[in-house]
Design a protein that fits this description.
Blueprint: H1 2-6, H2 10-23, E1 28-34, H3 35-43, E2 54-61, H4 63-66, H5 69-79, E3 84-88, H6 90-94, H7 102-107, E4 111-114, H8 118-127, E5 132-139, H9 144-157, E6 162-169, H10 171-181, E7 188-191, H11 193-199, H12 206-211, E8 215-217, H13 222-238, E9 243-245, H14 257-266, E10 267-274, E11 278-287, H15 296-299, H16 315-320, H17 343-346, H18 351-358
Parallel strand pairs: 1-2, 1-7, 3-4, 3-5, 5-6, 7-8, 8-9
Antiparallel strand pairs: 6-11, 10-11
């Protein structure tokens, strides 16, 4: 509790809010890349502490949300294969694909298991040597190292019945895609804390260098976020574009070299499909050819049919920052957490879920 009190002190929050109000004289549009930031901002009412000149937008920082229907459809088709156990994190089970979901595939007889880590998936492979366990690898640079480690562990143990379907994505590529699209005029980026712990603050240097936009990395407590916003407002007011690190207790300039080396050993960069962004060049991680025996996509070349989006779901626009969740006609009406139509309402990091839980509902 002492640790939390240090980053949730109301007096310090008030002082930071007053500082932001005093600094801010021009409109600033800041995108928080990470879904964890969106939930923290909504849960603690941080937007209400900011002046009207400072606008916060959520971005493509929810790994479940940005997983394309093509990848979900593949996972559903995989669950229908005899002798296959699909292991996945809980959020992904309820995400609707083009025509079904993993939850529905499970109800129809598919073997879908919810796991909490790759260690659980490896344990499933050991416990079922006569079946193939396929772990659905989704997420950014935060989860990719653990998946890489699981493949190396399976290789060391000779677990030939363990495989991974890699839908992992890299975060800087997504931010490049948003900025190049030019749909949202951004003044600054609230850098993702967890991802930056792995890739380091230096990974964001391209933002001021190539786009003239400042980035400040933040943690996930109220004071973390307010300090980062104050820093961004100060940079915006003085016209300086640089990378700041307001999460120094976890993030360094170079990041976690061990995790980076593990990812580089197992994965290679490839083009990837993102919900809302389409096909983004060199933004995905696929297994290297030397680990093809663990690559579910190579072992099961399935064609689940053409991918399709729900005609009313606007999750893709929310992920690009061009629409706030209440702007979707389905939000809080046809689409609610108990009966989600899009992944932004399913995931614990989804912007629609955050607005529904802590914001105004229809």
């Amino acid at each position: 509790m002492r640790y939390l009190d240090e980053f949730r002190d109301p007096a310090q929050a008030r002082a930071l809010a007053e500082r932001i109000h005093a600094l801010s004289t021009r409109p600033l549009r800041i995108m928080e890349f990470c879904g964890g930031h969106t939930h923290a901002i909504m849960r603690h009412g941080l937007s209400q502490l900011l002046p009207p000149t400072v606008e916060l937008l959520s971005g493509p920082g929810c790994p479940v949300c940005v997983t394309a229907n093509r990848d979900l459809d593949y996972a559903i088709a995989l669950a229908q294969q005899p002798g296959v156990i699909v292991a996945t994190f809980g959020d992904l089970v309820r995400v609707p694909g083009s025509r079904s979901s993993l939850q529905r595939a499970q109800a129809e007889g598919g073997d879908v298991r919810v796991v909490y880590s790759t260690l659980d998936a490896l344990a499933l492979a050991r416990a079922h040597p006569d079946r193939r366990v396929v772990f659905m690898g989704i997420g950014f640079e935060t989860t990719a190292p653990t998946v890489a480690a699981s493949i190396l562990q399976a290789e060391a143990e000779g677990l030939s019945n363990y495989a991974v379907y890699s839908a992992h994505k890299t975060t800087p590529a997504a931010m490049r895609a948003i900025l190049r699209a030019g749909e949202v005029g951004l003044s600054g980026i609230l850098g993702p804390g967890h991802v930056s712990t792995i890739i380091g603050s230096a990974a964001w240097e391209f933002l001021p260098r190539e786009h003239g936009i400042p980035c400040v990395i933040a943690g996930f407590e109220p004071l973390d976020i307010l300090r980062a916003v104050a820093w961004l407002v100060e940079l915006g007011e003085t016209g300086r574009a640089e990378v700041g690190n307001a999460y120094g207790r976890s993030v360094t300039g170079e990041g976690n070299r061990v995790a980076q080396a593990m990812m580089a050993r197992v994965f290679t960069l490839d083009d990837a499909d993102w919900r809302g962004l389409g096909r983004v060049p060199v933004s995905g991680l696929r297994l290297r050819p030397e680990y093809a025996r663990f690559d579910a996509a190579a072992l099961y070349p399935l064609d689940p049919g053409p991918a399709a989006e729900h005609p009313g779901c606007r999750c893709g626009e929310v992920l690009r920052g061009t629409l706030l969740p209440p702007g979707c006609a389905l939000f809080g009406r046809g689409c609610v957490p108990a009966h989600p139509i899009g992944p932004c309402m399913v995931s614990a990091e989804g912007a629609c879920a955050a607005y529904y839980a802590y914001g105004e509902r229809p």
